[in-house]
Design goal:
The chain contains seven helices and 14 strands. It is an alpha/beta fold. It has one domain: Metallo-beta-lactamase, Chain A.
């Protein structure tokens, strides 16, 4: 992922942070990112307004972002701050973009089973004309993510694990070359989940202060070597993080792993 035309090491994983906020943020976009892959860009979650989010990340980072480069979305769960951009993304790729083919939507089977319930009130019928019925498959190619089983996404190896959250949610491990990126997904603190994430070179971990989220004090109890790999996301607006190795991410930041 070249920043402003500069070359970057492509032997690992490159992440562009597109959002760092929680569900109640009045300042930031919802927690999300774009991962550079051999076959395009992979979106981690899809908050709204997704087009403004990508434009902002591109301006801050100097990394050009074209929605036509994004053929894969890793959807961790259906809460709005992670999924409300799917309507815009689906409509844009079907009616505005000149690129053929549906983007692939990767999610847990139980998430894919219900995502059309969320989208149908706005998108049903738009592909069929008056009186017709649309389906999720008219806009996206559903790709179930099975925990414990690795799968290829745009040339990178991805695996997932269910987290402890109020709705079905997945954490992610994304491997490419010599690098591995972990994305916690929304989750209350769970040592088994931390252990699963710990194989990565960089762990992007949520840090909220609401029910079913992980608190900073819980992460601070981890060993120093593990905390050195953790970068924080999904913080409430105005949250003050004590000094130490677990620093908050910034929108538009580029991480090379």
């Amino acid at each position: 992922m070249a920043r402003g035309g500069d070359s970057c090491d492509d032997s690992g994983v490159q992440l562009l942070v597109t959002g760092i906020g929680d569900a109640f943020s009045a300042v930031h976009f919802g927690s999300s990112g774009l991962v550079e892959a051999p076959e395009g860009l992979i979106a981690i979650d899809c908050p709204g307004p997704v087009l403004a989010m990508y434009r902002s990340a591109a301006e801050v980072s100097g990394v050009p972002v074209d929605i036509d480069q994004i053929d894969d979305i890793l959807l961790t769960h259906l809460h709005g701050d992670h999924s409300n951009g799917l309507e815009t993304f689906g409509f844009f790729r079907r009616y505005i973009s000149e690129k053929s083919g549906r983007p692939r939507l990767h999610a847990l089977p139980e998430v894919l089973a219900r995502v059309w319930e969320k989208l149908a009130p706005a998108m049903d019928g738009a592909t069929k004309g008056t009186g017709g019925t649309s389906t999720l498959e008219d806009y996206f190619e559903p790709c179930p993510m099975t925990p414990g089983r690795g799968f290829d996404v745009a040339g990178l190896d991805v695996s997932c694990r269910r987290t402890r959250h109020s709705v079905p949610t997945a954490g992610l491990l994304i491997r490419g070359g010599d690098g591995c990126l972990a994305w916690s997904g929304d989750s209350e603190f769970e040592q088994a989940h931390i252990d699963w994430l710990s194989v990565a070179d960089c762990i992007v971990h949520e840090c909220g202060d609401h029910f079913k989220h992980t608190r900073w004090t819980e992460l601070d109890m981890l060993p120093a070597g593990l905390k050195a790999k953790i970068r924080l996301i999904h913080l409430p607006d105005g949250a003050e993080v004590p000094s130490g190795p677990m620093r908050p991410l910034k929108q538009g930041e580029v991480i090379s792993i």
